[in-house]
Amino acid sequence: MGKVIVIGSQKGGVGKTTTTLNLAYSLHNMGKKVLAIDFDSQANLTTCYGVENTNELEYTIGHLMMAQIEEQVPESLDAFIQSKDGVDFIPSSIYLSVVDAKLRTEMGAERMLAEVLEPFKDRYDYVLIDTYPSLGMLTINALAAADEVIITVNPQLLAMMGLQDFLRTVSKIKKRINPTLTVAGILLTMCESRTTLCKVLTEEVTGSFQGQIRIFENRIPSTVKVGESIYYSMPIALYSKNASAGIAYRKFAKELIAYEG
């Protein structure tokens, strides 16, 4: 049975999509079968996989969700799966925003994604979900479907401010909807280790949550290679073998597996 992991945060610009892309590729290189799901109507992860004109896609996670809402069974789940660099993924599009609106009027709306993912869990070791930076129905659905959540945090003041709110949401989901949900840990991304502010805020995160929530030892450095690799629709390690961020993501994947083992 595969493990479902949400990459989440209330704030945008903290490396959720980049982490999903590179963690998926790193796990694949370690021999794991991985499914990445773009659960954001902006379809940033889908674009990172090189898909153009996302609004023209006929098979997306939004269409799977709507089929679940309407109690329709898709003819083939394989039609929704695309592959890139050894990683399977289910794309997204603006259609997911239609689903978001629809969920607000549905009974049992919080569990729709969990039901959609059930057939995939036996086919993959890991299902990674890239989420929208908000605490709306889509994020609630993702957390309700997950076994674990990795919280990405950019150690800058504004990015730090939403951490407590997100943790409270995770706690509520655990109590009311998904009792097996756990926080795998906090992953610090875009770390400018040479700056005083980064050092201070990193120490603040560590001091505030050490002993309560795991702070992953491996931190993702800020490097121009990240932006370049995304521009070329490639994981960092594939774009530049010796890039520090790519090495950090490989180490993080190993740390995650060791933590779960």
Provide the fold topology.
Blueprint (H helix, E strand, L loop, with lengths): L2 E6 L7 H14 L4 E6 L4 H5 L12 H9 L12 E3 L2 E4 L4 H9 L8 H6 L8 E6 L5 H9 L2 E6 L3 H4 L2 H14 L5 E7 L7 H14 L14 H8 L4 H4 L4 H17 L1
Parallel strand pairs: 1-5, 1-6, 2-4, 2-5, 6-7
Antiparallel strand pairs: 3-4
Terminal CA distance reads: 15 Å
Strand order, largest beta sheet: 3-4-2-5-1-6-7
**Total beta strand runs:** 7
The main pleated sheet reads as: 7 strands, mixed
Which H/E pattern describes the elements?
A: EHEHHEEHHEHEHHEHHHH
Question: What's the helix count?
Answer: 12
Structural class by sheet pairing and helices: alpha/beta
Shape category: globular
Strand content: 5-15%
Estimated radius of gyration: 17 Å
> Share of helix among residues?
40-55%
Q: Segments where pLDDT lies below 50 for 5+ residues?
A: none
Give the averaged pLDDT, no decimals: 88
Can you offer a commentary on this structure?
With 261 residues, the protein is of the alpha/beta class. Helix content is 43%, strand content 15%. It has 12 helices and 7 strands. The chain has a 7-stranded mixed β-sheet with strand order 3-4-2-5-1-6-7, sandwiched between helices. It is globular, with a radius of gyration of 17 Å.
